[in-house]
Design goal:
By secondary structure, this protein is of the alpha+beta class. It has four helices and eight strands, in the order βααββββββαβα. 19% of the residues are buried.
Length: 211
């Protein structure tokens, strides 16, 4: 499944590119995700999501490849459910270009997912992706406004505490149900209308037969 998104950050191209090189600062901006380890171009992390009362946690790893001239980054990601048989893998390409409002970030995701989330179709996954990207862009904007792209990395939930050597508490899970509900309702609207129409027709025929 291929998903395309874009957003703008209020920084010039060079500043935005420097920020995107710092995974320790950018990763906490992704809703529901934490960066556990980061060694050169390799990293590990966790993602937690929920659909209604059901929560799913993924643990995985990834690598990043950078094209400085093109201002482009390629993330190869793979993971699996910590309590389940579901898996997920993705190739995410982020390309930065100059924009009148700052820097335009285009993101293309080639996603392969199994398990419970696989029941969602492209429409729902696009809706979910839009919601997550909007939150990610908002947090990046806050990060740029509050600290600036050159600020040092700070301790964030889910990162390894070098003094205690253990993981900090995870962030709140991303609620996919809230994002998927509008699409589910739109998909259900046509079948529901057909059922209502059928009931009305049957009732009309019954009334006519009684006469």
């Amino acid at each position: 499944m291929q998903l395309d998104h874009s957003f703008t950050v209020p920084a010039d191209l060079d500043e935005a590119w420097k920020l995107f090189q710092n995974l320790d600062r950018v990763a906490p901006c992704m809703p529901g995700a934490v960066l556990d380890t980061h060694d050169g171009d390799s990293f590990t992390g966790r993602v937690k999501v929920k659909v209604g009362a059901v929560q799913m946690s993924y643990r995985g790893e990834g690598t990043v490849t950078r094209d400085v001239a093109a201002r482009s980054m390629l993330l190869d990601l793979s993971g699996s459910e910590t309590r389940g048989a579901g898996t997920a893998s993705a190739r995410v390409t982020a390309t930065l270009t100059v924009d009148p409002a700052g820097t335009l970030v285009r993101v293309r995701t080639d996603l392969d997912i199994t398990g419970r989330p696989a029941q969602f179709g492209r429409g729902i996954m696009t809706e979910v992706g839009d919601r997550i990207v909007r939150q990610f862009a908002t947090r990046l904007e806050e990060l740029l406004r509050d600290a600036g792209p050159a600020a040092p990395a700070v301790s964030t939930p889910g990162t390894v505490d070098p003094l205690r050597g253990r993981l900090a508490p995870e962030p709140e899970a991303v609620d996919l149900g809230a994002a998927a509900l509008p699409v589910l309702l739109r998909k259900a609207a046509a079948p529901a209308a057909a059922v209502v129409f059928a009931v009305v027709v049957i009732q009309a025929l019954r009334r006519r037969s009684r006469r």
